[in-house]
Amino acid sequence: MTLPRGARLAVDVGAVRVGVAASDPDGLIATPVETLARDTSARRTDLAALVTEVTERQVAVVYVGLPMHLSGKEGAASAAARAYAAELAALVSPVEVRLVDERMSTVSAHQALHAAGRAGRKHRSVVDQVAAVVILQSALDHERSRGARAGELVA
């Protein structure tokens, strides 16, 4: 099965920041886009910015990282990510929003930044973007190997 062409977007949702990454229309490679400030006010500027990205890039699917414990169980951060993904899905419909396991994405992001010679104290400004890249690249690899979208569809 061949998946429809279109860029993919990945979102790493944190309590303070939201990392964003995108792919090319063929879903070959994930690249960092930006780090948004998490806006819990009624304005929800972070969600508005994501809707703009989805529209401008003609995104086919949005992957939202689902933080899980190493045991595979979900906790409070998982519930927050699920709620965020549901809000986003309502705003970008009919574009699919899917939750993907993001265990170790932030750890991998810190390791990649350290390997690139970036000082630990300077990671904060970009680690969420890099984590989003890790999430998206994992989803793209899944798509290529299985011929199907990764993760759980948000209803």
From TrEMBL:
NCBIfam families: RNAse_H_YqgF (TIGR00250). It comes from the Bacteria. The keyword Cytoplasm applies. Signal peptide: none annotated. It comes from Flavimobilis marinus. Pfam families: RuvX. Its EC number is 3.1.-.-. InterPro entries: RNaseH-like_sf, YqgF, YqgF/RNaseH-like_dom, YqgF/RNaseH-like_dom_sf. It is an enzyme of class 3 (hydrolase). Gene3D superfamilies: YqgF/RNase H-like domain (3.30.420.140). GO terms for cellular component: cytosol. Belongs to the YqgF HJR family. GO terms for biological process: rRNA 5'-end processing. This is Putative pre-16S rRNA nuclease. It is found in: Cytoplasm. The keyword Repeat does not apply.
